Amino acid sequence: MSEYYFTLHLTYEQCLAYYQGAIEYVQVESDNGTRIRFPAERIRPFISSLGVRGRFRLLLTDHNKFYSLEKVM
């Protein structure tokens, strides 16, 4: 399993683009410089009236498939 940490700051307006279907994927750069792209639907539990803000941990399987996303701070 691969583990990646990153900080994500999306405005509420940027999150609305996801709900409207304009955005399918979120691309982030992890702390170690790796670029990772995952389905935007995975951020849904973390959207608030401010958007999405915080530190996250992303776990991928050995085949680079999504396993989990959790907020760590």
Describe this structure in words.
- With 73 residues, the protein is mainly beta.
- It has one domain: OB fold (Dihydrolipoamide Acetyltransferase, E2P) (Beta Barrel), CATH 2.40.50.
- It is built from one helix and five strands; from the N terminus they run βαββββ.
- It has one helix at residues 12-19; strands at residues 2-10, 25-29, 35-39, 52-60, 66-71.
- Strand 2 (25-29) and strand 3 (35-39) form a beta hairpin.
- The longest helix is centred in the N-terminal third of the chain and has 8 residues, at 12-19.
- Roughly how much helix do the residues carry, as a percent range? 10-25%
Q: Output the helix-strand order.
A: EHEEEE
Mean pLDDT: 93
Number of helical stretches of at least 4 residues = 1
* Percentage of β-strand residues: over 45%
Give the count of structural domains: 1
